[in-house]
Every structure is written in structure tokens, then in C-alpha cells.
Design brief:
2 domains; about 40% helix; binds D-glutamic acid; six-stranded parallel sheet; about 260 residues; alpha/beta
Amino acid sequence: MSGAIGVFDSGLGGLTVLKSLMSALPNEDFVYLGDTARLPYGAKSPQTIQLYLKQNIEFLKNYNVKAIVVACNSASSVLKQESFTELPVWGVIEPGAMAALRATKNKKVAVIGTRATISQASYVEALQRLDKNIEVFQQACPLFVPIVEEGLYDDPLTNLIVYRYLNPLRTVDVDTLILGCTHYPLLKTPIKKVLPFVELIDSSKVIAEQLKAHFPQTEMEHTQKVEILCTDNTAQFQAMVNLVIGGDNFMAIQKVDI
Ligand code: DGL
């Protein structure tokens, strides 16, 4: 599919980003890669994640994509844009940080993410580069990804775990929370129960706005084509594609080797 936009994540979390991109950019086609065989990235070392990132970008180039969106915070946090000069590669960190700065009134922002994202402190770096007066509180939430993968979006166990991770943020008076993992938008409801007055920053929305500015959409007849690839085609991945993207929108899921 020549001229499509490539999107990848370690697995299914990036489907929330793909969905936002599909609605914001109706004139564009997409190739999505879920690296399900090597999931989770969030528990891996920066060196390993960097290797996967490079391999996924090289792999997507075979599809003649015109741009790539790294729809994974763990991978975005080790992305060095200057390493990929021949085509634009967008990560989710910078757009998420910019949106948080627009949203915060008291300049106290919290970031939640995988261990990999939090240990890289890439949001802290991006936020403080844009505004040195910003106070940033970080919290790794390693149990959130398996909860989402199990589909336990609204479950007593989920409420308990969300409370355990996020309750300390209530005492530091943050008014904005960056959902620094593409799985987390699926936990907005239990997160809102613990932090009802905090604005949630969903990077899938923000990155879609940024790409729209780069690829202006005109009103034209276009049947959007979406190709979904994965490195391990599990029933769980298929169910998630159906739930998030909807059955009619994509060609059959294809298993690929990277
Ligand atoms: N989607 C990944 C992220 O945004 C989390 C899943 C994983 O650990 O691979 O960080």
C-alpha cells in the first residue's frame, strides 16, 4: 500500500492511536504493525526497545509508507528522531507533553506509564524543556497493561489496583495526568474514579491533531484502506482489533516475521 502512514505498537494499545488517526485523517491509508510476539516492551531495557524500534521502522519501510507513528510510549521514549532522516517518524512523547502544558493551570502534571517509559523520564525532560517551571510527578503502573490485555476495564480488581497506584497523586495536587501508555485510555473510567477532577491527556487524540496539521485533509471521495499486521496472531489481538477498529474497516489481519 504505497503512500500509507505506518503505525506501530508493541501490541494492541496502539490500536487506540490508529483509531484516532483513521477518523482525523480520512484521506489517508494506514499500515498498522502490532509486535505482539515481543510484547511487552514496557518491561524491557532501553537497548532492547531501541533495537525493536529500529527493526519495526525498517520493516514498515518495505510497505513504502510516507511517515511513521510510533504509537507506543515505551518505544517513543527511546526514539531519536535524527536517526531516521529519510522519512518523518513521530513519537507520542512531545505531543503529549505539549497537550499537558496547554491543559494545566497550576503547573503540576503527573505522568503514568510502563517501567520503561518512567525510567527514561522522557516526559519529564520534554515538559521541563518546554516550561522549566513545571512540576512533574511520575508513577510507573506495570499492572495496567495486563489488566487491559485481559479486558478488565471496569472490574473491582482494576479499581483496587488503580487506587493503589494513583492515590498518592491526590496528595500532590496535580490538575493534569498524562496517560503515558497507549493501553491506558481504555482505563479512563477507573482512573476518573480516583482522580475525578484531573484532566486526562490521551496521546492518541493529540498525535492525530498533529498529523492532521502535517497532512491537511480535503473533502474527497476516498475509501480508507487499513492493513493490520502482527508478529503473533492471537485470538486476543483479533478481538481487540474488532473492538477498537470495528470489523468492516480493515483487511484480514496478517502475521508477519520481522
Ligand atoms: N503500548 C505500550 C506503551 O505505550 C505498553 C505495552 C508494552 O509494555 O509493550 O508503552
